[in-house]
Amino acid sequence: MIKQPHVLSILLFPVWAAKLVAKKNKVGGQAIIEGVMMRSKQKISWAIRKPNGEIAVERFPFISLAKRHKYLAYPIIRGAINLYESLKLGYKALSRSAEIAADEQMQKTTPSSSKDKASMIFSLVVALGISLGLFMYVPMQISQFFFKDSPILFNVFAGVIRISLFVLYIFLISLWKEIRRIFEYHGAEHKAIFAFEDDKELTLENMQSYSTLHPRCGTSFLVLVALICIFLFSIIDTCFTMLIGPYPNILIRFVVHIALIPLVGGTSYEMLRLSDRYQNVPFVKFFILPGLWLQKITTKEPNDDQLKIAASALKASL
């Protein structure tokens, strides 16, 4: 039973914050507590195992802002919109799965109380603050001691620290039994999506034959974000230094980099789309390898029950 859903939400924030929107005939997904969320072009659904063994399936319509408003569908902008929507939907799915997995509020039909909403918002703010502090501010603070006057070296060094911290973080939380189980559902999600994309029926036999590593995974997206941060931050910092002068302190530099997150997210989204489309090109294969390697930590081999839940979630989203 999940006794601390908000703690899990905070720990998993860096992992689920970057799940991708569905495109063409493809779907996106996310592992949640004792279940899987799936996202098609027009629906969101999740399937969650209740304590009594039953599978709770819920779904609702959802159309991205980028689909509803043409001016938001341009490259880069659509990626930033997707990042925002993924944050919102990911936290909603994770919180709801915690309720169902703990068999709480299952009969509830009214909206959450003000206290519940306040608790969820506080949890999200804490998760965001920890993520930005650990993976943005700390690497910058360390790099400041060595390469304060070189924008390129500063951001390369900060990027190496950022990636190293993230890999270490993922590895450490994967040792926790409850997190490892969520990573098993992550593997089930990928197997179900692979089968669907190959137009296969979502049977256990078909899904079991696929890998748990998917090139369009949010984990790969995060690797791209870290690499693109190095490139874009180096350019912006160089321009800032040439036009205005050196940053007066690390806090100003941190704020400027935070303001660039939508641009980084949008660019990373476009790069991931291209890498998925041309994944059989040798250069692209090499480019997506780091993300696949990291998925060896964030995905685990699922059991049959977990595959059934992933299939139920996917079918509901369609």
Indicate the topology:
Blueprint: H1 5-16, E1 28-32, E2 35-39, E3 43-49, E4 55-61, H2 65-68, H3 77-101, H4 114-147, H5 151-174, H6 177-197, H7 204-208, H8 218-243, H9 250-259, H10 261-277, H11 282-298, H12 304-317
Antiparallel strand pairs: 1-2, 2-3, 3-4
Question: What do you see in this structure?
Answer:
This protein has 318 residues and is an alpha+beta fold. 66% of the residues lie in helices and 8% in strands. The chain has twelve helices and four strands; from the N terminus they run αββββααααααααααα. The chain has a four-stranded antiparallel β-sheet. α5 (151-174) runs antiparallel to α8, α8 crosses α10 (261-277) and α8 (218-243) packs across α11 (282-298). The radius of gyration is 20 Å and the shape is globular. Mean pLDDT is 81; it is low at 20-24.
Structure keywords:
single chain; 318 residues; alpha+beta; 4-stranded antiparallel sheet; 12 helices; 8% strand; globular
Number of strands: 4
The largest pleated sheet is described as:
4 strands, antiparallel
The first-to-last residue Cα distance is 30 Å
Taking Cα atoms only, what radius of gyration do you get, to the nearest Å?
20 Å
What is the tally of helical segments?
Answer: 12
Strand content: 5-15%
Shape: globular
What is the helix content? 55-70%
What would the average pLDDT be, to the nearest integer? 81
How would you spell out the order of helices and strands? HEEEEHHHHHHHHHHH
- Which stretches are poorly predicted, pLDDT < 50 over at least 5 residues? 20-24
Query: Structural class given helices, strands, pairing?
Result: alpha+beta
Strand arrangement within the widest β-sheet reads: 1-2-3-4
